[in-house]
Amino acid sequence: MNVVPISETTPPAPAPLDVWSYEDHALDLDLRWWAAANYLTVGQIYLRENALLREPLRLEHIKPRLLGHWGTSPGLSMIYALINRVIRETHTDWLYVTGPGHGGPALVAAGWLEGTYSEIYPHVGDDAAGVRTLFRQFSSPGGVPSHVSVQTPGSIHEGGELGYALVHAAGAAFDNPELTVACVVGDGEAETGPLSGSWRLPAFLNARRDGAVLPILHVNGYKIAGPTLLGRSSDDNIVSYLRGQGWDPTIVAGDDPREVFPALYGALRGAQARIESMRHEARSGGSPTAQAPWPAIVLRTPKGWTGPDVVDGVQVQGTFRAHQVPLAGLAENPEHLRMLEEWLRSYAPETLFDEHGRLVPELRALAPEGDKRMSATPHANGGRVREDLPAIDLATYEVAIEAPGRLRVSNTFSSGELMRDLYAATTKPDGGGTFRLFSPDETASNRLQAVFDVTDRCFVGQVLDTDDHLGHDGRVMEVLSEHLCQGWLEGYTLTGRHGVFATYEAFAMVSASMAVQHVKWLQHAQELPWRESVSSLNVLLTSTCWRNDHNGFSHQGPGLIDAMLPLSPGVVRVWLPPDANSTLSIMDHCLRSTDHVNLIVVDKQQHLQYLTLEEAHRHCATGAGVWEWAGNCPEDEQPDIVLACAGDVPTQEALAAAELLRDHVPDLKVRFVNVVDLMALLPENDHPHGYADSQFDDLFTPDKHVVFAFHGYPRAVHQLIHGRSNPGRFHVRGFSEQGTTTTPFDMVVLNRMSRYHLAQEVLRRASRRPDGWDELRRLCAHRLAEHERYIREHLEDLPDIAGWTWRAAEV
């Protein structure tokens, strides 16, 4: 057993660990509460009957399938018990984030012991019948998952996909000045890239306006089948590493609960005292750059602590064998059944639960009151504290349109102005707020730099005269990690705030699985009436595949659209605005929406503008529509062919193709359709935004060929329109993994989505060949050849293509 406080900081070291009284009576109570949590954890994994062992354990009391994770659970429950004591003694607000999310039964047990579980789920009562239900539902059909899932009270973090505990804890702490987030980081999870990057949090956490994050690195030595790297590292190496990241760690280690409990309690009280001191100093005028390193705890305990030690002559406790189900094959091995009963009875359940199966009064009294309970904190149910964003008149940012397709502006700049004013309108007197922008060093690159009119980039460190819009109190979050940016925003929105994650389109795939996990969380949250609605996760993808011509092939990839499309229709929205006003309308809508993952795909470069703000509002609300001015088919007539598009660059190329068709084959009746809400293409029964078949056919006709210029991979459109009338009539041109450092127009040429390719496709699919058909076909081939020669000689696009604007039809 050892306890090693580490401090080489300028401010005074924390008080000695024995300064806070922890008497034997308190220790005995906490150990009994821990025993109750451990008993309930084991029971959830194994039992379906005889929940409180009121009779000898028999095979028919055992679940037919044994699922769950025991190994990390005792450590999680010990930490929980001692934080509860700290909460009661200090009256502070804490949130518990469990990186080892597979320790689900421990957190379910804690919620039941605090009474929250039975309040939220009345069918899981606080008595013997409730314990039976609690056990039977765990990892069972119609029950709850084995992880710390959305169904678990007090959770904002599922933890099945490891790596995001500390980043979610950080998002919860930003602009939450009185909150302390206890974040348990598993030593297996610590091997992931996102978690490694998350240790840099002290460079962004400002004690003046933010809450605190207390990492508790739980080192129990093993993953599912092998040792952890940190488990085989020395204390000195771990301490040196954490110090280098900006933390001041205390090590608590041992295998005797009567020694570890007091040591961990002292470390927690010391950390809380350090946090309060840092808050006082920062909020009394101290500089954030002078703030002490944030406290952290390194906890070494045996994996599977208090469980079976040796099974069948093989060491289990303290090894990887304790990770999931230490005793298996009970039907084939009666000795294992006997060992399970011995294990369960070692917690003395008859002393923990009364004759009715309720937790005994002296243990019930250990829970904090009301919302101070970590299983009941409103910070883990962010809709309870969420405030709507203030109303802002979007007309302030409107791009004035005199005629469609003539003016060029950046499609994202006005949205940056909107975010600037949201920053200003939501800033609080302490310098915090309820809105933040997260971006991997790309705020200005993505033309959102208007936010710097009112705030800086956040950096709690040395600021130089040569830095640009960098400040200790800045609230624009930039770090070169998509994982951190998205994870910070997830934690921020789940605890009741609003924000945007803006990134280059191709590199959103770095954190694509995070987006998938967040969709799954929101999908299940919508099914839980006690989970209040939270702000949507808004992902702005810019620097898109079509206009990253200057960066090369690595920067070109629209794959996140494809990753999102198959997911929950109740959650996922994909937007492809064609211009600045539609981008503004969509951005405002998404920021005010709840319980969605909004994917907004629009390029940052200057583009032609088409819609007034009022027109943009109508178009975005409808999701798709016919642009009468762009086609030459009267509204009350059927076209010969439909020319459709979705996305800014595809819209321009489709319009240019429409102009070619109008000029050279004027008798060919073309209907022009623009799609801004991609989910409108789905049938109405498959998505809330989906069109009815009649509505879809009114737009695209029931039988005419459709040439579709699409922002992403063509397969996405084919996937969406499956089941529509004759889907084979849709001919989609989109990104086909072609291109590198080249000119903007060459990108659409290489991917065969240029105006000339679209016009050729229309001619190929048209049901008749009017006058001018052959001439236009030859013109397209000639212009494509001319383009290829010109860019190789002049290194830029043909002037008439680079400067093309829409020319209205002559009356």
Automatic annotation (TrEMBL):
Cofactor names from the entry are: thiamine diphosphate
Entries under InterPro entries matching the protein: THDP-binding (IPR029061), Transketo_C/PFOR_II (IPR009014), Xul5P/Fru6P_PKetolase (IPR005593), Xul5P/Fru6P_PKetolase_C (IPR018969), Xul5P/Fru6P_PKetolase_CS (IPR019790), Xul5P/Fru6P_PKetolase_N (IPR018970), Xul5P/Fru6P_PKetolase_ThDP_BS (IPR019789)
Per the record, the similarity remark reads:
Belongs to the XFP family.
- Name the record gives this protein: Phosphoketolase family protein
Keywords assigned: Lyase, Thiamine pyrophosphate
UniProt key word Lyase: yes
User: What is a biological process (GO) this protein takes part in?
Assistant: carbohydrate metabolic process
Q: Name one Pfam family in it.
A: XFP_C
User: What SUPFAM superfamilies does the entry give?
Assistant: Thiamin diphosphate-binding fold (THDP-binding) (SSF52518)
Locate the Xylulose 5-phosphate/Fructose 6-phosphate phosphoketolase N-terminal domain: which residues? 32-384
In this protein, which residues make up the domain named Xylulose 5-phosphate/Fructose 6-phosphate phosphoketolase C-terminal? 604-806
Which GO molecular function terms does the record list? aldehyde-lyase activity; magnesium ion binding
